[in-house]
Amino acid sequence: MSKFFRFFTLFTLVFFVSHTSFAQQEEELFRNESCTSIMFGKKATDDGSVITAHTCDAYYRTWLNFVPAQKFDSDTTHQVYWGTMHTHTPWSQEGMKLKGEIPQAKETYAYLNTAYPCINEKQMAIGETTISGKKELINKNGLFLIEELERIALQRCTTARDAIKLIGELIKEYGYADAGECITIADKKEVWQLEIFGEGPDRIGGVWAAQRIPDEHVGISANISRIGILNLDDKNYFMASDNVFDVAKNMGFWNGKEPFKFWKAYSGEKPFNVREYFVLSTMAPSLNLKFDSDELPFSVKVEKKVNIRDVAKLYKTTYDGTDFEMIRNLKVAKKERNENGVLEVVDTIVSSAAHPWLSTDRRDLLNSLEKDAVVRHRPISVQYCSYSWIAQLRDDLPDEIGGKIWFGLDVPRLSPRVPIYCGNLSLPDSYNYCGHNNFSRQAAMWAFTRTNRLAMVNWGTGKQIVEPEVKKYEDKFFGEVNFIENRAKELAKQDKLNAKNGENTTLCREFLTDYSNASLRSTIDRWWELGDKLWIKMKWKF
């Protein structure tokens, strides 16, 4: 480590230059490692919740809004656009292109419109991760990208199984134009993992398979196809397109003789990496899963039921204290004065200037000083996360209360999760603006991005300021949620009584909306304050 002592002064001078250049530095990384979805069946959680989740790990839009339920005439069409994930506001259409249209449903459900649309008013939620697959499968002549399939499913379906069937029908009729994608679809009863690829250059359709996460299990999709052997006779756990075997044969991906594995035919990559290994081994330690195995189980039975805070903790993961921790070699001398007042080395510790989200340029710099000083293992919590959420779906509550997402902007470890209910009516105005193209106090995103990046200037100082605030706010929200929901249940009963008396009211939904919006605003205000504090703290540490 002696070379680090000689060069660390140089390192600290250039370590934090150009925080806003992550998009250019990590462009290749984003294409290959965007998003993590973790799922829990209802018997794997301590309150019977079904859980799916999503980290939007790339520079997609951060504005979000609620789209209301609608009714349409029988001859109405639904227009299909590409480019919906990079607009600046809900009413702007820069970069969007109309690709076609399909018949509209007579009625649609309200849904929360994030870059990848995520939850509807009937407690159906959809997470997403890009799994790429073999490039030969992509056919850009198809109509649908994955985000539009999610939107239509949320508008028209109430169960995961119906959503899978609808998506399969749409792909077959109109074509799939995206790279390989996994969407994790959950309802109040169960959660499924659906993996989709194109059908190749000769057909605009698609090929797909879906596997259900058993009720007592946890599953994870993290940018790698994971569905293996398909037991299509077991309709309670498997579904697939009718061409799932033929396409693999015709494309030369499967010889028709060896056992068919979906991931092997259509992806070809080893079906797990560090994120899958970490989550599955953490939830089932007695299995003694090995990182050097050829394959891991598709899902594992949890050895201890989880609550929503346990899931939130998984999403903060940067592998601190493990062999996968990126900065564990970046150690400097810790000095203290002895009894004679002379400074002497008493220990070596990880530098306070090192943080778990080092960019490619900074890793290259350090590795040029000493080979493999920093070995990157892709964490679950990354610095290029636009937003993330954890959906909690419960069949013992009215839909407007039972379904909610725990939402956060920017780095999952550094921003508190705030509950947004699927019965909410609106969001604060600052959630109407994406801030990726310019700094603006109008955009909620920048309250968190500015503060969280400043905390990384000197992580030893920054984490002592930001992480206690994350805990403080999450303690508040998780601690008061039962009171809030009990009050909402009382108001839901009042709404039903009012309806019987001929008066339609939305007391429950208004209450939940007010609560969520007040919580969102309070976190935004506090993170602006923390950012101001960190500017002062960090002014000599750049």
From TrEMBL:
Record's catalysed reaction(s): an L-aminoacyl-L-amino acid + H2O = 2 an L-alpha-amino acid
GO biological process: proteolysis
Signal peptide residues on this chain, from the entry's feature table: 1-23
Keyword Signal: yes
Pfam families noted in UniProt: Peptidase_C69 (PF03577)
Source organism superkingdom: Bacteria
Nucleus among keywords: no
Enzyme Commission number(s): 3.4.-.-
Keywords tagged on the record: Dipeptidase, Hydrolase, Protease, Signal
MF GO annotations: cysteine-type exopeptidase activity; dipeptidase activity
Database matches in PANTHER family: LD30995P, SECERNIN
Family designation: Belongs to the peptidase C69 family.
Protein name as annotated: Dipeptidase
Organism for this UniProt entry: Draconibacterium aestuarii
Taxonomic placement: Bacteria, Pseudomonadati, Bacteroidota, Bacteroidia, Marinilabiliales
